[in-house]
Amino acid sequence: MSDSEFWDLMSKLDWKRAGDDEAVCRPVVEALAAKPVSAIEAFEEALAQKLHALDTEAHAREIGEQAYTGSGEDFSVDWFLYVRCCVVANGKSLFETVLKNPRRMPKDMEFEALLQIAAEAYQSKTGADFGFTSSVSYETFSNKAGWQR
To answer: What is the distance in angstroms between the CA of the first residue and the CA of the last residue of the chain?
Structure first.
């Protein structure tokens, strides 16, 4: 999936439905489900690549109240992932800005629902569970280069 195709799909998030994450994601799920299975997998790969790129200590130190301090206290690896989802969900411009400048990370905001889009599109299209594994992990601390000291 090209970068422009990925960001075009992200632009379909319906922020007028904020507060109902499933409704916000529905237009993306529907658009993706209309595509071939290979496109659903490519979407998941592109998402994983972007979340992986944001998985750095510098970014983790800028997420607000639960920021990484090095001590491990009050730092949730899941929350950091969901904050990174918020960055991607808010589009290419914010993603590119935050990637270059970790201080621009959203503070105390998340969008976990982004992680379910490919699985829901696949389920809608095939009736089966999504079993695709991306080439990189988006789990916190998986970007080894981003956490070197």
So the answer is: 33
Cβ(129)–Cβ(119) below 8 Å: yes
- Map residue 56 onto helix, strand or coil: coil
Tens-place pLDDT, residues 91-142 = 999 999 999 999 999 999 999 999 999 999 999 999 999 999 999 999 999 9
Instruction: Enter the tokens of residue 32.
Output: 């993706």
Q: At what angle do helices 92-100 and 77-89 cross, to 10 degrees?
A: 130
Task: For residue 99, give both structure tokens.
Answer: 């990637």
Helix, strand or coil, per DSSP, at residue 125: helix
What's the number of CA atoms in the CB half-sphere (13 Å) around residue 89? 24
Global pTM reads: 0.95
